[in-house]
Amino acid sequence: QVQLVQSGAEVKKPGASVKVSCKASGYTFTTYFIHWVRQAPGQGLEYLGIINPSGGGTSYAQKFQDRVTMTRDTSTSTVYMELTTLRSEDTAVYYCARASETATPFDYWGQGTLVTVSS
Amino acid sequence: EIVLTQSPDFQSVTPKEKVTITCRASQSIGSSLHWYQQKADQSPKLLIKYASQSFSGVPSRFSGSGSGTDFTLTINGLEAEDAATYYCHQSTTLPQTFGQGTKVEIK
Fold first, then answer.
1. pLDDT at position B91, please?
2. Cα–Cα distances in angstroms (integers) from residue A31 to residues A57, A103, A110, B10, B77, in the given order
3. Which of A60, A86, A111, B83 could staple A49 via S-S, CB 3.0–4.6 A?
């Protein structure tokens, strides 16, 4: 069955970076796009960007353009999302989600990774 | 970016009642509007894709309609397990965006 398994919770200090992983299984890794979405405590869903695991191409939301990098490792079917220069407002659960094309719905989601930014 | 506005923000409903949630887009998005259900401490789950198509395994009491800028999610005969927050999502334009969510509580 399709699974997206994310790395564990992280606690970071302001100004640090965090790298969250999302390991895919149960389907052909390079045939689906991966999006990243975050959710601050008690808040709604916020879109970060997309990566094409086939060629590695990415597109980021303008708000995160200068702080986020998405990469992939096809040998392990894993996608990574790195966010730099963390601030307290980046405290959130970060989700990866699968989609068949760039403009299609997210049919499977990871379990989420809580990133806490605190001094 | 395209702004999605849901209404209401909160709804308290008796079991078996009908629930209607609306989502309005700031510009036309055709039918590229999808609905998700998020229960407490869980990841969102896809319910309805492309405004009106049910995702695999979703109970038939969930249905969607609309196109252009105005969309509706309907739950016919609410069940206790439907207590959750519901989000609309547009995939037509990057950055993709979500509505603010509608929390449905069971009375």
1. 95
2. 13, 14, 17, 38, 38
3. A60
Residue A75 CB contacts under 8 Å (≥ 6 apart), including other chains: none
Contact between A44 and B100 using a beta-carbon 8 Å cutoff: yes
**Residue B94 to residue B85: CA distance in whole angstroms:** 24
**Contact in structure between A49 and A61 (CB atoms under 8 Å):** yes
Chain A residues whose beta carbon lies within 8 Å of the beta carbon of residue B49 = 104-105, 107
**Residues in A touching B50 (Cβ below 8 Å):** 105
- Residue-wise pLDDT tens digits, A94-115: 999 999 988 899 999 999 999 9
Residue B35 to chain A, least CA–CA distance (Å): 9
H or E stretch at B43: none
Q: Which residues of B touch A63 (CB under 8 A)?
A: 95
Cβ–Cβ < 8 Å for B38, B47: no
